[in-house]
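Holo prediction. Input below; ligand is nickel (II) ion.
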Amino acid sequence: MGELIRFGVSIDEQLLDCFDKLIEQKHYQTRSEAIRDLIRATLVETRSANDDAEMVGTVTLVYDHHVRELSEKLTEQQHAHSTKIISALHVHLDAHKCLEVLVVRGKTSEVKQIADQLIGVKGVKHGKLVITSADEGLHDHSEDSGSHHH
Ligand code: NI
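Structure of the complex:
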């Protein structure tokens, strides 16, 4: 959490034009906010390539709870990793399908391994891991003073 620094960027006119269109599409208020998010996204991506970095992941699973022993297998996995899986949300989508979102905290390698084990359980129709970082270095002053929603 450092001081707010201003710096100039030289950029090709056409590239900036494309960037401004993207900013509008994504509903950014300013170019600065868009650039900060791009930098953070790249940092998180780079960090998540490091197996030992401390990360937080959400694992989304969609499955049919009628499949034999599937719910039990998923629950077993969650108990086996109870210190790493810090939260779980279960939604009954319809008569058959369940949606589960699990929050996993640990080293990148652990988060990925737990996600793979869950997604790999036979009968899981769709599974996806989204990985992010709670690292302090990614958060800056400009957000604290603004009307940014967390
Ligand atoms: Ni359900």
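Confidence is low (pLDDT under 50) at residues 143-150. That is the main takeaway for now.
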